[in-house]
């Protein structure tokens, strides 16, 4: 029930694509609106200024035509001047040149013919003596020229008023009033406004579609990535990877990272399977041998002391092998986490090397051992003592095991100020160059049958490598086939300060784990 709700909730969520498209759409829309608004307002203010000039021009034309009158204006004075069409060729005033007169006439005609302009002339007392068309504004007498926007039936109009003076004096002979209805202006205003709104809507649509397409393009790798993750989580073994893209951005980095992680996971799984396969293969042989002997005994052996003895001995040998194999596998898995379980350990490498060396000398009297110890005083490394011992035993055990003809092992101990090196050299069969890296792999033996004969499981060097690297050390090998090998480990030397610090830490700390008891009864330490 709960999950049902959750999934519907999930489905209803908004995809990144839509968010992106809407986000950019809104942003661009706002900017677009502001820009268009500014354009619109400056465009209309230019238009309005034009209308304003037209109104002033009309007032100018009328006042200049009528200011020649000496007495107060009457309709008889005004009519012939403002309706020149009735007598267009007669110069009204001989004192003015014809050309100028005609110019005035043209201006008057144009002004009075303008649909938007209502030009009215009033006498001194305020009665209308001329009107080009019905003036919707009532008369107001004014002391000086004035021009203002005023409201008329819900319309904004320009009203200009001016007194008409007698030429050259300050005597008022009448008034002129021009009302500009601004019809053209409002028409342009509306038309431009609607064009802009349509543009805005088209722009909004275009930007949303563009944003959506762009977002789909940019985010396409995400769907590839999530498809890959889904497949990988359904089947961790699947070889599906995020398809490589030619783009080079954060998402392609992410895809690459994911692919690398999946590869690594695959490798781990493969290794794991390989390990399980190897282990069962290794265990199958001793189990089969023991089973064979038991069946033999079961059928005929019970009464035959010779068969009985042989079978018991063989079974015991195989059991021992199995025990050592199980022990080594345990050591291997423990070696993988030494850095967690055995921190803060301090060991004198000089002492441990000397001890192991002496033990080997004792156990293998047929071998010639030589030790070249360059360390003058105890030298401390951060490694659990038993682990260092185990590593040395693995290396020396191999040196002894793989030297048939020249039974000589040379151990040397040196330091270069930063690191201490132990090398174990033998003069035995050596390792071919192509196998040099593989000897550190689990269960790898150059000669499986012979190594088995000698009780080797192929785990020794992998345990040693893991242990040393777990303590940030380094293992290396040099070898020449038929001439012998040198295995070397190198570990960081602790200075006095580091050593005291670690010893203090260790003293205050609970032992992180009971000492590895099983390590002690490892076949290698026997
Ligand atoms: N000193 C050596 N000289 C020659 N070959 C060696 C030496 N040490 C290791 N090897 C080779 O590396 C393989 C792996 O070694 P190791 O991991 O110790 O396994 P094991 O000794 O149990 O076989 C050995 O089987 C052997 O073939
Ligand atoms: Mg070995």
From TrEMBL:
KW Membrane (keyword) present: yes
Q: Where is this region: Disordered?
A: 231-250, 506-526
Ranges that cross the membrane: 20-48, 195-219
Bilayer topology reads:
Multi-pass membrane protein
Example of a GO biological process term: phosphorelay signal transduction system
The primary site where this protein sits is: membrane
Instruction: Cite the entry's keywords alphabetically.
Output: Kinase, Membrane, Phosphoprotein, Transferase, Transmembrane, Transmembrane helix, Two-component regulatory system
Got a GO cellular component term for this one? membrane
Specify residue ranges for compositional bias: Polar residues: 231-242
The name on file for this protein is Signal transduction histidine-protein kinase ArlS
State the organism of origin. Furfurilactobacillus rossiae
